[in-house]
Amino acid sequence: MAPTRKGKKIEIPINKETDAVFPMGHHGDVMVCLSRNYRRLIVYKKLIHGTVLHYAAINCGDFTLQYCAAQLVQRLDDAEHMYGLLNRCQHPNILKPTDFWPWEHFDALKKHNKAEAFITYPLIDGSLLDVPMEDLFLIEKFIENDKPKCRAYGFTDEGSKDICDILSAVSYINDQLPTTINSGSTSSKYENESQGTSFPLSPLRIYNGQIYYNKMAEGQYQILFGNFYTELPNHMRDKNSRGRKAPTVDVIKRLNWEAAATFLDELLHKNMLEPNDEMKHLKDKLKKNPPANYSDLLWEPGLWTTYVKIHFLREIFWCIESDEVTRKLVLRKMDPLGIDSCMVKLGYSAGKEKSLLHSIKFLRKRVVAHQDTTYLNYKGDKNDVGECKRLVELLVQKSKADYMIELVSHIRQLGWVMESPILRSKVFKAASIS
């Protein structure tokens, strides 16, 4: 019988030569066996699908098997730095290594000795790129030029949590970087001893399948990553005060946020999804210079679920009601969102959207509340609105793709809502304690 983890069958490839140690009969190619202090690490050539991690197992001499994942790092000093770095990190979405195994061997192909190492981790399920797209995205299917296409018009609760987890971990890594040094004044590519930190000035590698998941329940995932560039390419370096090209703190921070944007691009491309304007705006924010700020990123509607948007609209109305005369006057003087065509479709007369106040009242009445009225007043195909607020919100997006981006900008400038509504959502709270 094959071993299990979390009630799931694990198919580990086993080599005939190691059947005495692994008596399961699942034969496969062993890459290397390393021994130390009555313990044995067996690393298989087979990679966990879509990742750079090998299937592996540790035998403690009594036929007890501990299954794990193993990452080959091709330079011993790089592996030592990465192992020490990951052990210092205290974030629920950053991989925690379980052991370090040096591997000195002769490379027959290149005809020289090599000093490499394996870092082992708890076994993972796979790459986040392989998760079903319906678990992460709200998807609209449509026909364009006689070709079927799909567009992501938002995240599911799980998708929002997972992307927030990634951004939270990137922010954590950026916060560990030294803050008192000026541009490029590092003592080596890895550390700045004069500042008392050994945290590397090297960017994260969180694309090409290097964000992993463990499946916790149907449609629910734990996100994990923690791989770094061990050598910073010249094109990623800025000139320091001495005129030499070197990694700088600001460059590393920007590259880490850009890597998150690249991963989101990969996730969309892998599933052949077109992003909506809100997701495009989120990606642009991640790529901007100077580097993004995590608190500002949480204000991006591209991260929000439909529930968070609805809660935000409710909060705006609570703000208006707390000082009705003054705040209505302020909103009457501000330009509308430009969603008049949607208002007409949902029973309003043309030309009713004369100010931001009218836009907000419409969203409160037709999107947030009175779903029966919305359905009955809609003048098109009733399936476009159905009985789901997600469909009504999508209808508004089709009328004005960036309406929520504009609304957020206005409300933040007014200072009425001080923190992102996603911080008060069940999704974000679940992510923060995962």
Characterise this structure.
The chain is of the alpha+beta class. The protein has helices spanning 76-88, 133-136, 157-176, 249-270, 277-287, 294-297, 306-322, 324-332, 340-345, 356-368, 371-377, 389-399, 403-414, 426-432, and strands at 4-5, 8-9, 30-36, 39-47, 54-59, 65-73, 99-107, 112-122, 126-127, 137-144, 147-155, 212-217, 220-224, 238-239, 245-246, 273-275. Strands 3-4-5-6-8-7 form a six-stranded antiparallel beta sheet, with helices on one face. The longest helix is centred in the middle third of the chain and has 22 residues, at 249-270. The protein is elongated. The two termini are 32 Å apart.
CATH topology of the largest domain: Transferase(Phosphotransferase), domain 1
Biggest β-sheet description:
6 strands, antiparallel
What is the total number of structural domains? Answer: 3
Name of the CATH architecture of the largest domain: Orthogonal Bundle
Low-confidence stretches: 13-27, 181-197
